[in-house]
């Protein structure tokens, strides 16, 4: 029997690119934080995918674009590998923005463990809100 292949891609449709949506996230979004990551999320209207996500690293902490881009790649990869935690446990559509708050270059293992904790914390908050 062939094994079911899980969708662990992070395609174009899943990326949050709209300036309007990103601005709305900063003004109306709710946030969760597990250092060095911060998740800003907002429930959105019907869209083609359930969750659209973006990542950002402040220029204030990392002056060199090379370092910012490396951290963004690590964030996207850890989200891509662990997005099943959110996709399988939530109803509704959301916009996510992941911020890196640390001041030094992280290792992938650290980012991935914090990403798992952050997504589980998000699930707990959403289930708490829907059950209340």
Quick structural summary:
By secondary structure, the protein is of the alpha+beta class. It is built from 4 helices and 4 strands.
Characterization of this structure:
42% of the residues lie in helices and 20% in strands. The protein has 132 residues and is of the alpha+beta class. The protein has a single domain, classed as 2-Layer Sandwich (Ribosomal Protein S5, domain 2), CATH 3.30.230.10. The chain has a four-stranded mixed sheet with strand order 1-2-4-3, with helices on both faces. A hairpin with a 2-residue loop joins strand 1 and strand 2. The protein is globular, with a radius of gyration of 15 Å.
Q: Provide a count of the helices.
A: 4
CATH architecture: 2-Layer Sandwich
Percent helix: 40-55%
- The whole-number mean of residue pLDDT values reads 87
CATH topology title: Ribosomal Protein S5, domain 2
Terminus-to-terminus distance: 42 Å
* Largest beta-sheet details: 4 strands, mixed
Query: How large, in whole angstroms, is the Cα Rg?
Result: 15 Å
Unreliable spans are 1-5
Order of helices and strands, N to C?
HEEEHHEH
What is the CATH C level class, in words? Alpha Beta
Given helix and strand content, the structural type is alpha+beta
What is the total domain count? 1
């Amino acid at each position: 029997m062939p094994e079911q292949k899980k969708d662990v891609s992070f395609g174009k449709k899943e990326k949050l690119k709209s300036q309007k949506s990103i601005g709305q996230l900063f003004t109306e979004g709710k946030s969760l934080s597990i250092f060095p990551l911060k998740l800003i999320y907002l429930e959105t209207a019907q869209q083609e995918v359930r969750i659209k996500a973006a990542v950002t690293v402040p220029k204030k902490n990392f002056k060199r674009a090379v370092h910012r881009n490396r951290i963004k790649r690590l964030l996207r990869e850890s989200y891509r590998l662990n997005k099943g935690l959110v996709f399988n446990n939530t109803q509704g559509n959301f916009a996510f923005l992941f911020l890196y708050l640390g001041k030094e270059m992280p290792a992938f293992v650290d980012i991935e463990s914090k990403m798992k904790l952050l997504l589980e914390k998000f699930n707990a908050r959403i289930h708490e809100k829907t059950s209340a």
